[in-house]
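Give me the fold.
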Amino acid sequence: MRQLKWGILSTAGIARKAMIPAIQAASSARLTAIASESGKAGDVAAEYGIPRAHDGFRHLLEDPDVEAVYVPLPNHLHARWACEAARHGKHVLCEKPAALDAEEALTMQAACDQAGVALMEGYMYRHHPQHARAREILDSGEIGEVRQVRGLFSFPLDLGADNIRLSAAAAGGSLHDVGCYPLDIIRRLLGMPEAVTVIGRMPEALGVDTSVNGMLSYADGRLAEFGASFQQTMLNRYEVIGSHGSLLLPAAFRPDKQGGVGEIVIRDERGRTRREPVFGDQYPDQVEAFSRWALGEGPAPDAPGELLDQATLLAACRRSLQEGCTVSLPPGTYRAPAGD
């Protein structure tokens, strides 16, 4: 079997804890190199058995034995290095949020299209099979017409720590770090909203939001709510409320925290519940899907326009939070949401 040869730009924690093991576990992938600008690549390569370590990202991009790169850099560097990788002819899997606004999304997509390489945003949760199963249940009409979606992702973070998530210069904050997940699933289920209103807590000393809550409204009367926080217990869930029942995924975004076991809780209009456990390994499955696509052996994991849609929605939420206003999104501009 042909394997896509991967390199990683950075020794970030998400790379060490999740993506290095995922690439090494995927049958269609082979991890050949890692790079760092801080001199840590050699130690990480030795620890994980990675063949080559590069002192500098450009050296990795010039490595002919690297066909695809994973970009887990701070948020403000995603677009820059994704475009640089494309210019070197590398396929790009970029950690979320890949683009912070429509301009970045369009620039990244244009660079990859021009180079003839694949580009995907790293929402690993999309690749867990519980979401495909949830979609099947919704499409069956079991809970009736979908009227509302609620999503939440939170975890406690030491706000006094030296953490890139708390850096305004690096485009940190709870909206970008975890709020993008419930926004993504809301957009995939309901499409782009007509307007968004977001409030939150933004300590002046930090300059980034530590908790946010938002409302998304749709022209047909449907509503969606999302929340994100660095100051609440660990929760990662979404609920779809229909005219005749509801559907809840209590471990929607990080089922890997409980051995890969997701669960779908279906409640009918009489209050009776049914639970369906769904097992998956979302990080390796993400690598498999991307690798097969880049190799020309599988379909594109995302629908055209997903990156632009998500970046546009995220930017609208950020503007609403910062300016204290409702932000309208023009109808008919964006492509339809993808099926999972």
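Residues 306-323 form the longest helix (18 residues).
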